[in-house]
Amino acid sequence: MWDYTDKVLELFYNPKNQGTIEETDQPGVKLATGEVGSIACGDALRLHLKVEVESDKILDARFQTFGCTSAIASSSALTEMVKGLTLDQALKISNQEIADYLGGLPEAKMHCSVMGQEALEAAIYNYRGIALPSHEDDDEGTLICSCFGVSESKIRRVIVENNLTDAEQVTNYVKAGGGCGSCLANIDDIIRDVKEKAGVAAQNHHSPGLPQSQPPSAKPLTNVQRIALIQKVLDEEVRPVLIADGGDVELYDVEGDKVKVLLQGACGACSSSTATLKIAIEARLQDRVSKNLVVEAVQP
Ligand code: FES
Predict the structure, then answer these.
(1) pLDDT at position 106, please?
(2) Residue 38 carries which DSSP code?
(3) In whole numbers, what is the pLDDT of the chain averaged over residues?
(4) Which of 15, 40, 78, 115 has its CA 20 to 30 A from that of 101?
(5) Is residue 68 part of an annotated ligand binding site?
(6) Distance, CA 37 to ligand 1 centroid (Å)?
């Protein structure tokens, strides 16, 4: 018997926002749908969003889930969390925040929160007509777990975003390794590689004189400290995530509140690089350095 929180049980027995959203001819409103998982693998989630076009606000959210107690509770929690947010705000929701909303999930059920976060991303990317990032692409020879259809890029992403350290945790978060087990050695190799790359990225620009990451409300920084902090946040918090997805970023220049960066590898070629900039880099720098920063990509 799983040790579920009261919130998980409440949303399982009385799920909020279950169902679909009726097509509407209401002017200025559009629907978006995101679908992840498969019934064959045990869990599937279809998320429906009603979006006010002018403000980019989510007016309503509904879900249809095939899965266990925690899959239903996670889906219901997600729909409650996104209502009233803009699409950019919603994209910042992490799988950990979905789990936190529920008062926690058993680690073996964390894949349900990952499924929710991925369905949200899929719905918003569909709405914006952006091709899904490569972690959704299992058709390019990067399939690691054939039992559950999980790609290398998806495994790398979940390791970085949740700071996972062993294959059992990866199984808990994305199911990979939970079938025949023949992919477990590959998952170990990926974990080792992600950690090594993250270590290199953090060391490349290490300097004992750099200021620590701090909230925007801290004492104003000098220009030199500000640029150093931007570099530090890019190296320690942004680059490991991009490297895990086959990309990278380099700080090119800082002019006032404009941060110019060079996107490299998969990020530079990716059709969703604008979203990558806004979400992964600008939001992180605004959070850690200054809410006025604007990130702009420059060509090498
Ligand atoms: S290939 Fe991953 S569990 Fe079988």
Answers:
(1) 92
(2) E
(3) 83
(4) 40
(5) yes
(6) 16
